[in-house]
What does this fold into?
Amino acid sequence: MLLRDNIYERLRSDILACHLAPGDDMREQDLAERYAVSRQPVREALLRLEREHLVTVQPRQGYRVNPISLSDARDLLRFRLALEPACVAEAIEGASDATLKALDQFREFSGSHEDFIAYNRAFHSALAHASGNRRMAAALCDLIGQADRLVRVSVANVKNHDPTRLVAEHAALIEAMQRREARTAARIIKAHIVQTEKRVLPALKRNAVVIVEER
It folds into this structure.
């Protein structure tokens, strides 16, 4: 991996994991020291992240990690609602039995909130790749990665957060996919994402780093 791509991935990961929190100010020199590189790959990474709407350039002041916009969070989840069922449908139609069987590793979970975020990201990424459609998988994995930031910011404010129920939904989806029951799988994944929106958006409204915007 080229140095500029490596720095971009590390910086993007730190933003999505909230190691660099929404609203944090950043300077090229500080980031260069953080990652032990020159300022050039840092500058290139920041410009890429600006195009992804994760950072904002502040003239003569440096950069800032973009706060989470409630409207952008809603848009992200709605885009996922359009894309993920399509990936599931493609997987049911074209994935091998072995690919669908490999999803069994996600039927169970135990661990902390942070462990659950990693588990959840891995599960939904596996669904994306099972589709066999590289463009859809890449787009969905990007959405899932950006959704991690929403989950981390909102999780402390999610009422009655219960990973057990979410894992049960995953298991039901896996079962439907392995049986190649397209309608059942579509119903489950759509309901799963809709419920995510109903949990996450109200929780985001209670967080000080989130911008509440009306359309």
